[in-house]
Amino acid sequence: xxxxxxxxxxxxxxxxxxxxxxxxxxxxxxxxxxxxxxxxxxxxxxxxxxxxxxxxxxxxxxxxxxxxxxxxxxxxxxxxxxxxxxxxxxxxxxxxxxxxxxxxxxxxxxxxxxxxxxxxxxxxxxxxxxxxxxxxxxxxxxxxxxxxxxxxxxxxxxxxxxxxxxxxxxxxxxxxxxxxxxxxxxxxxxxxxxxxxxxxxxxxxxxxxxxxxxxxxxxxxxxxxxxxxxxxxxxxxxxxxxxxxxxxxxxxxxxxxxxxxxxxxxxxxxxxxxxxxxxxxxxxxxxxxxxxxxxxxxxxxxxxxxxxxxxxxxxxxxxxxxxxxxxxxxxxxxxxxxxxxxx
Length: 343
Fold this sequence. Notes:
By secondary structure, this protein is α/β, with parallel strands linked by helices. The chain has 10 helices and 14 strands.
């Protein structure tokens, strides 16, 4: 598929976007939109985590349905008005669905969806927007994090592990809660370091690898030998530091062992707590192309494959007791034997 990179005219609409050569006329059925509109969260494309997971679903949908697409980067320190302008431009251009990647798009999606009732909007990680043409694409992150906690508690040699959250907000508290519960299900006395990089997204908690490095160094110096991050682009700093100190890191959202920019450090990526953002983007697009657009809350969990734990590292696969414990925990959650905390 040919992709041209173009600059958007309006400053509030982001740094750049990709506009594929496909078009709605090539898609199957009665779909008449221009393609998928995807607006990235803080950190943008290339974070090897949350935004890139969304982009994978964007690419898959473009290819399979032979439709166009435009993905747009955020600006640094942008306002809600910038997000509104970005989404409105996509809607006016005929993109459908239009998806805001991240809870920060909540107010903008609510405002713009009301102006374009015939366009389907999606928002990832926010369930507050209630409208007939909006799908809230949310996940049981705590379930995947529970598996990460089990893996960490089984793999640690020091009975000392760590959690690094990007921003101190309720969404990331779910990651911490699941991780801590999972770890303590293995060892109730395990020592757990906990740290949030910033209080607000605007301070760079999800987009500052240097902050991730500093936090990981601190936890490793304190004695942790397995560190789980839920910090977006900042997590690259966590993974790099863990590898340099030859301790385990656990990635998030995407299978970070498979990410090209982290290849140098992958031997020390024990696994990743997965959130199938790409699948959510793909399924919402499919529903629109099929003429049956999803709306309301669409929540992914372990049972549906919406969250999970990546086992790509052969070193992880060789740790049979760790794998068995994670597999059992997964089945217990699916069966309802274990209910995972969200705070």
